[in-house]
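ok so for the tutorial part 2 we go from a plain amino acid sequence to predicted structure tokens. step 1 is just haveing the sequence, like this:
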Amino acid sequence: MAIIPKKHEMPTQDPLVRAKNFDEVALGYSEETAVAEAERCLNCKNRPCVNGCPVNINIPDFITKIKEKDFEGAYQIISQDSSLPAVCGRVCPQETQCESKCTVGIKNEPVGIGRLERFVADWHNENVKEAAAPPTSNGHKVAIVGAGPSGLTCAGDLAKKGYKVSIFEALHTAGGVLVYGIPEFRLPKAIVAKEVDGLKELGVDVETNVVIGKTLTIDELFDMGYEAVFVGSGAGLPNFMNIPGESLKGVYSANEFLTRSNLMKAYRDVNDTPIMKGGKVAVVGGGNVAMDAARTALRLGAEHVYLVYRRSMEELPARAEEVEHAIEEGVDFHILRNPVEILGYENPDDRMDPKNGFVKGINIQKMELGEPDEKGRRRPVPVEGSEYVLDVDAVVMSIGTSPNPLIKDTTEGLEVNNHGGIIVNEDGLTSRNAVYAGGDAVTGAATVISAMGAGKVAAKAIDEYLSKK
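step 2 — the prediction. this is what the tokens look like for a chain of 469 residues:
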């Protein structure tokens, strides 16, 4: 039977409708569509897609179960390697990982592995209500710092082996970037809560409002009887450009803007969370977080949203799907552009003027691509005399984040690199005995699935270490 050359389309909300609400954009496959997409899989003997997955999900086997309409069987296969399948099916960049290795993709579009993973996870969550039985305890205790993707993954893998696992989360809700960073329209918070509840069913304790380095230190965790600690505290320290005007009112880091909208529920009209709504907004950056911020600003009522990025469209680091959705929804891309100053209202003669100190525009300089930099990308070079001003009411800086130095500053003997990332070996072990780390706390801002992969690596190493005690 000939292979259908293209993936089955993912049904979505109409762009003009979804740009005004926070409901999930992608609507998911039906059972019939999922089975039809699964039929495109060749079930290759060498399984290149598995090698492309950071957590090594047995992709051909779970897809085979979908072909057989054994959707729960497919879920059980996925959950052997992933603690967050409903999350990964939505936000993992499959196009550069598992799907990029798909044999079908050599001559046609690759199998929609991410869409099938999402379908399976959603089917399980809608149809299976029985709680998972906690494994038999092995008598060992492990502490996890941070309830983001790496911490949740490490906790899940260890809990399945019988470890008593406690997660300590600084915020009031578990999920890390999944709840404060990724908008509701891409990843509903109920999905994250369901995944966290699944870990609790395995016996994982989640302690929120605990700031490791303030409330407790890592040394105190060992004093409490924990035999190993995994640090998955993320990279929540925003970067700025250090250009004039960044201290004006109406200038946000993407972290702050998205946290106010997502975690503090500014997207709900009934909440009074302070955030800029309406007006014109400029988002600086080109990654997934920048797309999230731009699309969130639209949904909060902005009359115009500019996406300012210093390189070309071909070099945008965001997922192609997110860029496409942003364009469909009306985000105005200003490519090969770079801010040089944020302009504000200044009226020293009337200190009571409510506009004083607020953003009124952003001075933009055109760029062109020059010689390649150390990463092989052509370096953006300013075009002399090309500056112009965009009239805006708010600016969102989305140019990356760094690990928070709190844990490093409060943990003796913990080595970090020049960017503040915790230094680890191939097993995730830090310079401190029995202290492991992974995810953005090590690498700086990266993908959810890469953080999950680091959590799996560390869980395996912790198990090997404590099994010998």
